[in-house]
Amino acid sequence: MDKQSLFVEVANLEERIGELYTEVGALREKILALIEENQRLEQEVELARQGVRPDGDGARPGKENLLRIYQEGFHICNVKYGSLRTEGECLFCMAFLQK
Ligand SMILES: [Zn+2]
């Protein structure tokens, strides 16, 4: 391998490292934003959980709240209530919403 192509390769590598560095920075920003969003949602779920508690049938927030919580990515079913939906739609939640 001649010197010239080595220099070219190093220059290319440097450029890619620079791009990666920028990407890592952007990812860090996204992660921070996600963490903040997650904290906000956790607070919201906690509030909703403590919220509307009609006497008698179940300590559950109203259906509109539940739907909103579900759409924000949380379980509202008895199985995993309040935890993050990582596997897409949840049949238990859907069944619950259709009640
Ligand atoms: Zn669920």
Q: What's the arrangement of secondary structure elements?
A:
Layout: H1 3-50, H2 63-71, H3 91-98
The structure holds zinc ion (ZN).
In total, how many domains does the architecture comprise?
1
Which oligomeric state applies?
A: single chain
| Ends apart, CA distance between termini | 71 Å
Helix content: 55-70%
Query: Unreliable stretches, pLDDT < 50, 5 or more residues?
Result: none
The shape, in one word, is elongated
What does this structure look like?
The structure is a single chain. The chain has helices spanning 3-50, 63-71, 91-98. The protein has one domain (3-98). It is mostly helical. It is elongated, with a radius of gyration of 24 Å. The model has no long low-confidence stretch (mean pLDDT 85). Helix content is 66%, strand content 0%. It is built from 3 helices and no strands. The site of zinc ion (ZN) has 7 residues, from helix 3.
Any descriptors?
99 residues, mainly alpha, 3 helices, elongated, binds zinc ion
Task: Tell me briefly what this model is.
This protein is mainly α and 99 residues long. The chain is built from three helices and no strands. The longest helix has 48 residues.
